[in-house]
Batch of 2 targets.
Target 1
Amino acid sequence: MRRLKTNHCSRRRKKKSKDSLNFTGRRFILLIKELLKLIDAEIPFKKAESWDNVGLLIGDMSSEVTGILTTLDCTLEVVQEAVDKNCNTIIAHHPLIFSGIKRIENQGYGAVIHALIKNDIQLIAMHTNLDAYDQGVSAMIADKIGLTKQQILLPAEREMAKLQIFVPREDVESLKQALAQVGVGQIGDYSDCFFQLEGQGQFRPNASASPYIGTSNQLEVVEEMKLECVFDPHLQKKVEETIHSAHPYEEPAYDIYRFHATDQFGTGIRGELASSVSVKEWLTSVKEQLNIETLRLIGDSSKMIRTVGIISGAGVSYMKEVAATGVDLFLTGDIKYHEAHDLLMAGLLTADIEHYSEQVMIEGLKELLQSFDSKLNVHASEQSTNPFKAI
Ligand SMILES: [Zn+2]
């Protein structure tokens, strides 16, 4: 049976190992561009926020990957670690380069860029695209603290286009084939998704028409099929060209309209505990499991909780949307004083788990990449890049 991917069923889908990568003798050769393609197939870079900067930030697409080092931030110490571990590729969650660079001096962030280029190390950023992924950083935190029944907390919506078209019965298969070839009927991992219904169409060609079926000025009734299918809106021009070249009629009858569908990507993860627990007690174990130095609760510490929403990094700007989901507890980082008051006013029990709790992605991304292809040589950085030290 056709299974459409939803947040629920795709969450723990077993990854298939890709076999499209090259082998030369016994040596496994992977170029940076192939690594990016492999990542993009699962965690598309286009899913990143518009303000973000993801993908290959520094390096050469045609370089051969000698090893990958995963890290939360790219610092000088991390570059040194990559050199020591013979990894010429660093994948960082936070982009080193964000806005327009005016000069690169050998100091501050410039020194890191210098070190990367001097040592011929490529830098890839997987930031908000990894956040939007259903096995991304929030899910890695959820795994670490033992939440089950995980699903995207705030699913994103994506625009889709729907085509309905009427075609003589004998031409329906060739039209479906032509449309499928340009990407129509692609839903998640499924291609050639069409619905068809039999009916009768009628038309009267005028004197200047050159009809495929029928005679000028005579009413014609034809056995037709109504075909329905969806496609990505960016394909619309190609789809209409295909209709006009593959449909037998001089004036094919069709409608295209846009709609919004729930995406399999989104913001944060929600999950459940096996039973209701006291928030104060549970947070003590969370602090340990995430290895964080400070954990601050905003709200009633005597409350019992069972459902938890997580937005890794800094997610307090989503407070209203998270409150509307009805989770018992919200976990995020980087909460400022007045935002904490806003959370109290909104009645959303929240714990600040520090931005640095995202460090679980260092090991998490290593495992994820190896689940995409077990032959990948990936190391998790052992450097702490936490700029804060609790006194
Ligand atoms: Zn972050």
Target 2
Amino acid sequence: MSDSHSIAIRQSVQTSVERPGDGLDRSLWARTAAPAPALPVLRGSHRAEVVVVGAGYTGLATALALIERGVQVAIVDAREPGFGASGRNGGQVIPVFKHEPQAIMARFGEEAGRDMIDMVMRSADDVFALIDKYGIACDAERTGWIQGARNAAGGQVLHRRCLAWRKVGADAQLLDADEIAQLSGTTHFRSGWLLGNAGSVNPLKYARGLASAAVGRGASLFVGSPVVRLESVDGAWRVATPEGELHARRVVLATNGYSTRLWPGLRESIVPLYSMQIATDPLPAALGASILPRRQTMTDDRHLVHYFRRDAAGRFVIGARGPFRPDPSAHDARRLIAMARRLYPQLDEVAFPFRWAGRVAMTPDFMPHLHRLAPGLTTALGFNGRGVAMTAAMGRVLAQACLDDGDRRLPYPVSALHPIPLHRLHRAGVQMMMSYYRLRDRLA
Ligand SMILES: Cc1cc2nc3c(=O)[nH]c(=O)nc-3n(C[C@H](O)[C@H](O)[C@H](O)COP(=O)(O)OP(=O)(O)OC[C@H]3O[C@@H](n4cnc5c(N)ncnc54)[C@H](O)[C@@H]3O)c2cc1C
């Protein structure tokens, strides 16, 4: 990087790029994480070996994996590290796919399927290894994840799921009614399963920690710099933002649910759903001890799932599918508050001062996708609400994919980009699906 670059850094440091309507003013994570590191806006023209677009977990894990291989990386984000789903999520580190292992092997074949299963099962190790290696203070805990069934039919599904993952080596344990009541602190569930090597993080602290690690090891990270144009010029990529440009032979797009029209069909290959969360203030000790006393994180077995946990300060945090906006209203939060109190009647008098939302990138097959979009241009997206763990593993694969030009077999299959037909109608479609699933969940 040139001298003019360091001048630009000094002239334009930003510590946070929060704006009204972002939905971050009532976010628990935004209110409790240390301020974002001071970072520059991209100005002028610069070169890097690899440019990573998007400073969420995917982009940052990829950048760190590249740096570990001695590659010079520039990262550019429209807003700031963790502005997208990575700073807004539930922080549940869950190292399994939504599909069962047999379904993965049936679809992708024994060898590729086994690689994918190994990759996802090791993904929580990858997260906690990054946290250890880079000394990231993000309230990381490895207490396990529980999925609970509300009735006998749901119990059978989870029973099968638990045995299927255990068969391929996962640390999975069946829970009967008494066991799940003891661990969860609610009698809402008839049975369930516990994935022992899962865990939790404060998501925004983790994202900012990854960003600091990347910058500390030599990456250039530009904030407030939306990439508005991507073009291939004489075998190299020109990555243009409103005030500057980066040139590199290789580019990784890590924009997931916040993808714009930067590359034809990319945004249309996922459906960005909003998920919203609410949180209490720290609960009094006795009340707190009655909810998830061993601090596992939890998900129910609804089609429109509820996910919940306690944070490091003892707040209760619960989330579910939300309306199509980043700043949910008090009215939007009512259904979720009612659910929290159904699960835990002891929260009846407790207020929920925090509420926020973010985009979850869903794919039609509920699997993440890795694409080579053009020579030197790679992406992975569509983590389907399970990206906290998987992005740490995918970052390594993306780093490998972006450097080797397709000549080596990867632990995750590269697929062709498939824009979803009639994508512009996705909101109406999603709303219909949500009404249908809500009805099925009520009838179950
Ligand atoms: C409310 C919520 C709860 C969730 N809970 C969980 C959970 O508990 N467990 C779990 O495993 N997963 C969860 N997820 C999913 C998880 O957060 C994501 O899978 C993960 O964060 C994806 O990371 P990412 O880096 O791919 O994308 P993101 O974090 O969304 O990052 C994309 C980045 O790209 C940037 N960008 C976009 N376009 C441009 C451009 N043109 N130029 C420059 N920058 C650009 C954005 O500003 C953004 O910072 C949840 C998601 C949400 C929203």
